[in-house]
Design a protein that fits this description.
The protein has 255 residues and is mainly α. It contains eleven helices and no strands.
Length: 255
């Protein structure tokens, strides 16, 4: 790897760490760069997953204030994230690289629609609960657990736009602010990346130089993303999610 290629990977890591902390989809920055320097697709995916762990942890630490009072929820959903992440890592090494090409843009598009409509749908749900006297479940119930399990399978396989899917699911099923949900999303992403990476360490090929460069960059980006993301008002954060998600769909659909 030349010095310019190394700088490109480092810069991609910073960008990915920043974007992942605010919303997700950072893999769409690092993955093309790793392919561009000549890494095979699976090696690039594995190296990327390993390198993004420090960024996920850094972002979660940056959102630690928003995590207060959410320990029980994080532990419960963390089980789904860990199981799904391991399942996705196994699928990466057994399925063809094109396995998710068709469904991923559809998933991301659906998640974006839910993110946009979430305030309106939540208001309707709250009015209905007020009429029927039912109480909001603080953990999202089995529907959220199952949804996050499936989203984490995809996350362990590729991770692109995984955060957007997490936010859309939690936004629909939990009565909380977008910033607090984003904090939980960062922890879940860290769990998925870590579980998948531990599996990859023993069974897959990766490039240590690329891993270290992305790790350093994503750790820096995680702190940058937390500083920026925590200052965004709900409407601005929602708009940012939609913009990043739309760009992700365009990139995923390009040949």
């Amino acid at each position: 790897m030349s010095i310019w290629e190394s700088l490109a990977v480092l810069a991609a890591g910073i960008g990915a760490g920043t974007i992942n902390t605010i919303v997700g989809s950072g893999t769409l920055i690092t993955f093309p760069v790793l392919l561009g320097i000549g890494l095979p697709p699976v090696t690039a995916t594995v190296s990327n997953a390993l390198g993004l762990i420090p960024g996920s942890v850094s972002g979660a630490i940056g959102y630690r204030e928003e995590l207060k009072g959410q320990r029980r929820l994080v532990l419960r959903l963390g089980v789904a994230a860990a199981a799904g992440g391991l399942g996705g890592a196994v699928l990466l090494l057994t399925l063809p690289s094109t396995a998710f090409e068709t469904i991923v843009p559809v998933l991301v598009a659906l998640a974006l629609v839910l993110v946009v409509l979430q305030p309106r749908i939540s208001a309707v749900v709250q009015r209905r609960r007020a009429r029927t006297g039912t109480v909001t479940r603080t953990d999202g119930g089995p529907v959220l657990f199952g949804g996050l399990l499936l989203a984490s399978v995809y996350g362990g396989y590729f991770t692109a736009a995984q955060g957007i899917i997490y936010l859309s699911l939690m936004g629909m099923l939990l009565d909380d602010t977008l910033q607090r949900l984003n904090a939980v999303k960062n922890v879940l992403a860290a769990i998925v990346n870590s579980i998948a990476a531990l599996f990859f360490l023993f069974v897959a090929d990766f490039d240590w130089t690329a891993v270290l460069l992305i790790a350093v960059g994503s750790a820096v980006g995680g702190q940058l993303g937390a500083k920026v993301g925590r200052r965004l008002p709900p409407v601005a954060l929602r708009i940012f999610i939609v913009v990043v998600g739309t760009l992700a769909i365009v990139q995923l659909l390009l040949p």
